[in-house]
């Protein structure tokens, strides 16, 4: 788990200087595919299937501006100054999975966009801090939801984090909306992915195939860490090698 998640974190770091005006999202995907495979991993998203949809075609999800999650990289999706882009990455290594996401600004972004990124990062940190042994999933959900609402933003409907380990998505689901003290109990030894998806203008989403967008076209941000719940508290696994 540590090794798979280290690849995720290092890739998200490596992509940062590439995210600039004029780059298309397929270029980012091609770089990510090469990066993962050169390190002995497998892009966990590529070929992933759910009922009713074709296999996901890429190594990363690249969701621009009003895109919330699961954006498909395309040569015609060209980044422009002021955009924000969420990159979600999954890696399988030796039968174990890593998963993480980060939202980046392209060039000079607006104050509203920067606040959205800051709020979403803080919501993730608060969710992680709530993931204590013997707490409940609802404690994570409530920590994220209450902070996001206090800042005037919205958690995207029906999009959740998840358990992770020998499969990319395992039980339990980790909603970003919920009540403290409710839901499955968290236990030492669990590994889960926490991922607030926060919108500026509405909680409502619209779907187009794999992709999810804000219903009102407002900006959305996405940050995700895979964590290990140890006996002494949460430990972030999606960190680069020098930080592990």
Please describe what this structure looks like:
- The model has no long low-confidence stretch (mean pLDDT 97).
- The chain is globular.
- Strand 11 (205-208) and strand 12 (211-214) form a beta hairpin.
- The chain has one domain (2-243): Creatine Amidinohydrolase.
- It is of the alpha+beta class.
- The strands form four sheets. A five-stranded antiparallel beta sheet has the order 8-7-9-14-15. Strands 1, 2, 4 and 5 form a four-stranded antiparallel beta sheet that branches. It has a three-stranded antiparallel beta sheet with strand order 3-12-11, with no helix packed on it.
- The two termini are 12 Å apart.
- The chain has helices at residues 2-15, 25-38, 111-129, 137-150; strands spanning 42-43, 60-64, 67-69, 84-93, 96-105, 154-155, 160-163, 170-175, 191-194, 197-199, 205-208, 211-214, 220-222, 225-230, 233-236.
